[in-house]
């Protein structure tokens, strides 16, 4: 029986352990987590979602405070079209975030950044251009294009000096999306270096409708793999979504995957950005506690733990401070849902909004508990402490479990009590 360590991912001159830790915004896949993956010879992702607030947290900058001060006059206004990002600020925040991570990189692996097209920021093209270029300037090893079709994204960086040296990849959830991307992208004269195929059991936003349960990763993976082969396109294909054990991963590698992308198992590691209180909620969740809903203003279905504070909250839209989901006209469906809820409950100050959630505010505060389908199995990957909480894991432990475990076995960590005893 084979294990992940019997395989390697070749990306240009890099020979890598074929484990990719997927991007988890906002600040869930931290630099610490990505750096561990790189140190261990794999690929880690940081995320560029809401970089100004993430930079403020890490580097004591005041990007968000300054933006809010600039647009404070507009906070009561339903029309948010005046709220724009200062591109210089966005560039600086991205450089800080990426540069700091890259400076600390050790080992033979790589650190990529996850860029979601759905973060439209009231100027989709201009802001995405700055985000990608600043990440390249700051030395990122690669960019994974996510949450969108990205039909014009390569062209935003095609004149950048690192366009050919940085690794560029895209996440798709269907062969059709990949075909569309390759067709439109053809004129950039540059193929993606890898393609992540994400199935319906992943965390975060899903590239499916509410009929997601009718799809499965293995079938989509096989369809894309066979098509790439028929077209003689030698692009590593990386399945993602529900790959929970080393055995699951090895099965895909044996079937021709270049690597696997995983995330959920790492949400309960010490290097992950989620506060420990939230991590305990992930451990405790049962299958019935997890739902796919339509609360995200992006329009994509999203998987969440049902009891998270983001659901049915009453917060006023926070676009003057954040505004990551404002579309090209300054709209966001949370703003509409918020005002609709207030119109239906006149005179009330705090009205719960059930139709949508203010994703910026709640992701930023770790109050939107997005998660993968198999989150309910996390409790089987560790020890229950005597106080009823679960022992956190190290990213190294989880990475090595994926790398070396065979079949459906999962290596448990050393018990904390033993660690304390020496
Ligand atoms: C908490 C969480 C947040 C995520 N956020 C993002 C994100 O910001 N962008 C993205 O492209 N994918 C996101 N994902 C998807 C992962 O990168 C990954 O592809 C997927 O979850 C892998 O499946 P697994 O979690 O079952 O291992 C997220 C996943 C989780 C669990």
Which key phrases capture this entry?
6-stranded parallel β-sheet, globular, TIM Barrel, Aldolase_TIM, two-stranded antiparallel ribbon, nitronate monooxygenase activity, FMN, about 425 residues, binds flavin mononucleotide, EC 1.13.12.-, alpha/beta
Outline of this structure?
It contains 13 helices and twelve strands. It has 422 residues and is an alpha/beta fold.
In CATH, what is the homologous superfamily?
Aldolase class I
The geometry reads as globular
CATH class identity: Alpha Beta
Quantity of strands, as a count: 12
Oligomeric state, counting identical vs distinct chains? single chain
* Strand line-up across the major sheet: 4-5-6-7-8-9
**Runs with pLDDT <50, length 5+?**
none
Q: Indicate how many domains the architecture comprises.
A: 1
CATH topology annotation? TIM Barrel
Query: What string gives the helices and strands in order?
Result: EEEHEHHHEHEEHEHEHEHEEHHHH
Enumerate the distinct ligands.
flavin mononucleotide
Mean pLDDT: 97
């Amino acid at each position: 029986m084979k294990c992940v360590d019997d395989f390697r991912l070749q990306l240009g001159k890099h020979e890598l352990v074929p484990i990719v830790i997927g991007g988890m915004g906002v600040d869930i896949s931290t630099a610490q987590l990505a750096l561990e993956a790189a140190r261990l010879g794999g690929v880690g992702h940081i995320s560029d979602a809401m970089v100004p607030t993430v930079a403020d947290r890490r580097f004591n900058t005041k990007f968000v405070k300054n933006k809010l001060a600039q647009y404070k006059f507009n906070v009561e206004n339903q029309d948010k079209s005046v709220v724009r990002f200062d591109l210089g600020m966005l560039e600086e925040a991205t450089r800080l975030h990426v540069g700091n991570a890259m400076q600390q990189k050790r080992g033979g692996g790589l650190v990529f950044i996850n860029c979601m097209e759905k973060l439209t920021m009231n100027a989709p093209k201009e802001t995405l251009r700055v985000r990608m270029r600043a990440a390249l300037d700051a030395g990122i090893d690669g960019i994974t294009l996510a949450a969108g079709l990205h039909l014009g994204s390569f062209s935003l960086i095609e004149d950048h000096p690192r366009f050919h040296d940085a690794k560029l990849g895209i996440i798709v959830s269907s062969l059709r999306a990949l075909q569309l991307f390759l067709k439109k992208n053809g004129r950039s004269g540059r193929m993606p270096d890898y393609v992540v195929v994400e199935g319906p059991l992943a965390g975060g936003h899903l590239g499916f409708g509410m009929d997601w349960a009718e799809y499965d990763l293995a079938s989509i993976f096989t369809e894309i793999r066979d098509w790439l082969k028929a077209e003689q396109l030698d692009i590593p294909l990386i399945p993602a979504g529900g790959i929970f054990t080393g055995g699951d991963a090895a099965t895909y590698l044996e079937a021709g995957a270049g690597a696997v992308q995983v995330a959920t198992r790492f949400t309960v590691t010490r290097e992950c950005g989620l506060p420990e209180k939230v991590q305990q909620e992930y451990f405790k969740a049962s299958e019935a506690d997890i739902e796919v809903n339509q609360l995200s203003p992006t329009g994509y279905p999203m998987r969440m733990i049902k009891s998270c504070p983001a659901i049915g909250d009453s917060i006023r839209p926070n676009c003057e401070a954040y505004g990551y989901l404002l579309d090209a006209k300054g709209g966001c469906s949370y703003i509409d849902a918020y005002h609709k809820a207030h119109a239906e409950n006149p005179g009330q100050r705090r009205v719960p909004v059930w139709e949508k959630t203010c994703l910026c505010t709640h992701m930023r505060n770790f109050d939107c508990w997005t998660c993968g389908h198999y989150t309910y199995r996390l409790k089987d990957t560790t020890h229950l402490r005597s106080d009823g909480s679960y022992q956190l894991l190290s990213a190294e432990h989880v990475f090595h479990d994926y790398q070396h475990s065979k079949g459906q076995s999962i290596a448990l960590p050393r018990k904390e009590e033993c660690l304390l005893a020496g």
